[in-house]
Design brief:
Blueprint: E1 3-5, H1 11-14, H2 18-32, H3 37-40, H4 49-60, H5 86-96, H6 98-118, E2 124-128, E3 137-141, H7 145-148, H8 150-216, H9 221-255, H10 280-290, H11 292-310, E4 318-324, E5 331-337, H12 346-411, H13 417-452
Helix pairs in contact: 4-8, 5-8, 6-8, 8-9, 8-11, 8-13, 10-12, 11-12, 12-13
């Protein structure tokens, strides 16, 4: 800390040294005004809510509200009771989720650090009144290090603010992915419930036929016991599917900030998607250039570099002294400063060097993790897409053909009712597998776009 200090003699000299006092005050004010102009206009916040909204619009095609509201906000175009698309769910979550709004508060906190680094420290003034033989003394202290090191500290605060902003953007992408996954899980739970209802109705028919054959003596007790067990299993699966839907609804409502709302939500799927994605390695290149957490790691490294420079000087304290005798006829300047005899701030310099090395390694670690995320997500999406295509284009049509063939044989008068019902059960199994494959595909797309940091799959 650096100061200018003025001391004045005893009380009789106070009235004879007005000129000295004026000179001292003028000098202090002049030094203070050297950089006081910068305090008038605070620096612009490099990452505010609007900047995050713009980044999300570019990366996810979603935007934020201008401010967070205490009550849930539902757009006029969204009617949860009639069905929520994935896009609707993400919009509601970004607008209403309180945990996400809490995350955005980090932007304001980091900007407060920028403002703190920008402003100058106020001067201190002290007066010791003369009592008895004690002299009257004035002291005006102006911290000069806040002026000399102000620009470096401001650059450091801005770099850290950009680091926080990019981290918030990456956390926003993670949050969007979580909402999309929750929406996909609700869709799957609804499909499983519908499949379980159809399966139960089908097994009821099979069980009735088996009971009729047992009464007629054309089948054995063992066969009937099997159909009874299958029917009870189907009933248990139906009940469990109902609970799964309720749990999935609650998870999605919580993410959308509607936990205390009595709105019943139903997830609906968008029309069939056309998957247009670049090669996996091309997406790795895009991710390395655009992922916010890579930018955050880069700004952390730059901040560590600036900190390692700043730590060389911020431990030295210097005091400028301006004093005069009691009659004010003589003015003499002086200087007091820290003598770096016992140490040169070696511990802080060592810490700054290690933090610089750590941030450099972290930057490279993030880059490699991003490449792994993209490659894993891309392979997972390819596998899910192939599985969905096989169930949609090969296995489901084969099961439907088997059901149609057995139906024609039964209508022609053949004893193929049980065969037709069993084929229908296999069709239900295939449709369930297709629904699971579709869910995995939706989740893998959400993970891939989070990993790349941009929209890579178009409808």
């Amino acid at each position: 800390m650096t100061y200018f200090t003025f001391h004045q003699g005893h009380s009789g000299g106070f009235y004879r040294s007005k000129r000295l006092l004026r000179l001292t005050i003028i000098g202090v004010i002049g030094l203070t005004l050297l950089q006081i102009g910068g305090c008038v206009s605070p620096p612009h916040n490099p990452f505010d809510r609007n900047r995050v909204s713009a980044e999300l619009a570019k990366r996810t095609e979603h935007t934020l509200l201008n401010r967070h509201t205490s009550s849930p906000v539902i757009p006029e175009t969204v009617e949860p009771a009639r069905g929520l698309t994935e896009h609707d769910a993400v919009t509601l979550a970004l607008w209403n989720n309180p945990a996400y709004a809490e995350l955005l508060c980090d932007l304001g906190l980091s900007h407060a650090d920028v403002l703190d680094a920008h402003q100058l420290q106020n001067p201190d003034m002290s007066i010791l009144f003369p009592l008895g033989p004690k002299q009257l003394e004035f002291a005006v202290n102006v911290p000069l290090d806040s002026m000399l090191l102000r620009s470096s500290r401001l650059e450091l605060a801005i770099l850290r603010s950009k680091q926080v902003g990019n981290r918030v953007v990456q956390d926003s992408l993670n949050f969007v992915r979580d909402v999309r996954v929750a929406h996909s899980e609700l869709l799957l739970a609804q499909d499983q419930l519908e499949n379980a209802e159809s399966r139960y109705q089908l097994l009821e028919k099979i069980n009735k036929i088996s009971e009729s054959r047992l009464s007629a003596g054309t089948t054995g007790e063992l066969d009937v016991m099997t159909t009874r067990i299958e029917l009870q299993t189907a009933q248990e699966r139906l009940e469990r599917a109902g609970y799964d839907v309720e749990n999935a609804q609650n998870r999605l409502k919580t993410l959308m900030g509607l936990s205390f709302s009595d709105i019943m939500i139903v997830a609906v799927e968008k029309p069939q998607q056309i998957f247009v994605a670049a090669d996996g390695e091309d997406l790795v290149t895009v991710a390395l250039q655009s992922r916010p957490d890579i930018w955050a790691a880069q700004y952390a490294y730059q901040a560590a570099c600036k900190q390692s420079e700043l730590v060389k000087w911020d431990f030295i304290s210097t005091t400028g002294i301006l004093s005069g005798k009691q009659n004010g006829s003589q003015v003499g300047p002086g200087l007091a400063m820290t003598l770096p005899i016992f140490h040169w701030n070696g511990a802080s310099k060592y810490r700054a060097a290690e933090e610089l090395r750590k941030t450099c390694l972290h930057w490279e670690a993030v880059r490699q993790q991003v490449a792994l995320d993209v490659r894993t997500a891309y392979v997972t999406m390819e596998q899910a897409e192939n599985s969905w295509n096989r169930w949609s284009n090969e296995l489901i049509p084969a099961a439907e053909q088997a059901v149609a063939t057995s139906e024609r044989a039964y209508q022609a008068g053949g004893d193929y009712l049980l065969l037709m019902l069993h084929n229908s059960q296999q069709l239900l199994d295939a449709e369930l597998k297709k629904a699971e494959a579709a869910s995995e595909l939706r989740k893998s797309i959400a993970e891939l776009e989070r990993s790349v940091g941009a929209v890579v799959v178009r409808e």
